Automatic annotation (TrEMBL), chain A:
Pathway: Porphyrin-containing compound metabolism; heme O biosynthesis; heme O from protoheme: step 1/1
Any further remark recorded for this protein: Carbon 2 of the heme B porphyrin ring is defined according to the Fischer nomenclature.
E.C. code: 2.5.1.141
GO-annotated molecular function: protoheme IX farnesyltransferase activity
Localization annotation: Cell membrane
Membrane-spanning segments: 31-50, 56-76, 102-120, 126-144, 151-170, 176-202, 223-241, 247-268, 289-312
GO biological process, one term: heme O biosynthetic process
Keywords recorded for this protein, A-Z: Cell membrane, Heme biosynthesis, Membrane, Transferase, Transmembrane, Transmembrane helix
Function: Converts heme B (protoheme IX) to heme O by substitution of the vinyl group on carbon 2 of heme B porphyrin ring with a hydroxyethyl farnesyl side group.
Reactions this protein catalyses: heme b + (2E,6E)-farnesyl diphosphate + H2O = Fe(II)-heme o + diphosphate
Main location: membrane
PANTHER family, alphabetized: 4-HYDROXYBENZOATE SOLANESYLTRANSFERASE (PTHR43448:SF7), PROTOHEME IX FARNESYLTRANSFERASE, MITOCHONDRIAL (PTHR43448)
Protein name per its UniProtKB record: Protoheme IX farnesyltransferase
UniProtKB/TrEMBL annotation, chain B:
Alphabetic keyword roster: Membrane, Transmembrane, Transmembrane helix
Species per Swiss-Prot/TrEMBL record: Celeribacter persicus
Stated name of the protein: Cytochrome C oxidase assembly protein
Membrane-crossing segments per the record: 20-41
Length: 316, 53
């Protein structure tokens, strides 16, 4: 676009022009940070070694792949984003970036990330990344997000792949250990998002997204949170069957799962009147705890790996 | 006639151009690094062969 077109098209066009930050925002940097962290953890705890530059390159590709999924998600969901208060300021609903630009950016970065990961590491890691992007964009965003209240469960699978990809980048395979890291995030996602939905209900309702709180009510959501939290504790314990878990993981898993299950029971016992009376205090605390839960579990695995390499401790 | 008064739109455009330039520069550097690592570090025998030629 030239300066001449600005003067011809006037103020409307003027206010729509995007800055670099708008394109970066399409990549959902906050989500990307979780992807980077868990992929890094998968890469670090994997047996064997990877050249540091290739490790950095692999993480970068996984982050770009995750960002590309975010851009494609914003392209498809721009109608919903326009309605929900939380997402109204995103680049597409705000009118700074067009849907076509988001689609182009998402597709280009997806292809780039998969091909470069393949060149840098191996076909298994690249295949897993390609499948993750496909799963998040097609299976979750286009198909199931608007069709079923179990959307969060399915969407969680896409977010659970990064540690598995990080692991595959080093080893070139998929094992019980990497599957359990996948399960840790997969089972954690529903209680994490449903606890958020308990105090953000109005927004999902307005956008007509079949969030469990909207379709089945908050009582059913509280029941679901408890069930998934108990299942999650089981998968966290199953990690002891792998050579990854040491004393650090034992301490973190016991403490965090006890707190998480206790929090889920508190939520399950409460009713709406009680929650509204104290401004969803317990729900908000549970949501915050869920953020620490994943972070600490993966940190513990990395600390144990470091300790093992110094000959301190060992797997159970 | 030249435009003398800068508008906020020019800042946004500059941020896009500078950002894209940095991304492209980073891309070149990454490819260079990847090539060096793949050719030398991961295959020392080939690297030694290349040096002796």
């Amino acid at each position: 676009m030239t300066d001449v077109t600005i003067s011809l098209e006037g103020g409307r066009q003027d206010s729509r022009e995007a800055g670099f930050g708008d394109y970066f925002a399409l990549l959902k940097p906050r989500v990307m940070s979780l992807v980077v962290f868990t992929a890094f953890a998968g890469l670090i705890v994997a047996p064997g070694g990877l050249h540091p530059f290739l490790g950095f390159f692999a993480i970068l590709c996984i982050a770009i792949g995750g960002g590309a999924s975010g851009a494609l998600n914003m392209w498809y969901d721009s109608d919903i984003d326009r309605v929900m208060r939380r997402t109204q300021s995103r680049p597409i609903p705000a009118g700074r970036v067009s849907r076509e630009e988001a689609l182009g950016l998402g597709l280009t970065l997806s292809a780039f990330a998969v091909i470069m990961l393949w060149l840098a590491t191996n076909v298994i890691a690249a295949g897993l990344l390609a499948f993750t992007i496909f799963f998040y964009v097609v299976v979750y965003t286009m198909w199931l997000k608007r069709a079923t209240p179990q959307n969060i469960v399915i969407g969680g699978a896409a977010g659970a792949f990064p540690p598995m990809i990080g692991w595959a980048a080093v080893t070139g395979d998929v094992t019980l250990s990497s599957v359990l890291m996948f399960m840790l995030i997969f089972m954690w996602t529903p209680p994490h998002f449903w606890s958020l939905a308990l105090f953000m209900n109005a927004d999902y309702d307005k956008a007509k997204v079949p969030m469990l709180t909207v379709t089945h009510g908050k009582r059913a959501t509280r029941n679901h949170i408890l069930v998934y939290t108990i299942l999650l504790a089981g998968f966290a314990a199953a990690m002891f069957a792998t050579p990854l878990a040491g004393w650090t993981y034992l301490v973190v898993a016991v403490v965090m799962n006890a707190l998480f299950v206790r929090g889920a029971i508190t939520l399950w016992k409460r009713d709406e009147d009680e929650a509204e009376a104290d401004g969803y205090k317990a729900e908000k605390a549970f949501f915050k705890l869920s953020l620490a839960y994943t972070f600490l579990h993966f940190m513990a695995l990395m600390v144990d790996k470091a300790l093992f390499s110094f000959g301190i401790g060992g797997p159970f | 006639m030249a435009i003398t008064k800068l508008h906020e739109i020019h800042d946004r455009r500059r941020s896009r151009n500078v950002g894209l330039g940095l991304v492209l520069g980073l891309f070149v550097a990454l490819l260079m690094g990847l090539t060096v690592v793949k050719v030398t570090v991961l295959d020392p025998a080939r690297a030694a062969q290349e040096v002796s030629r």
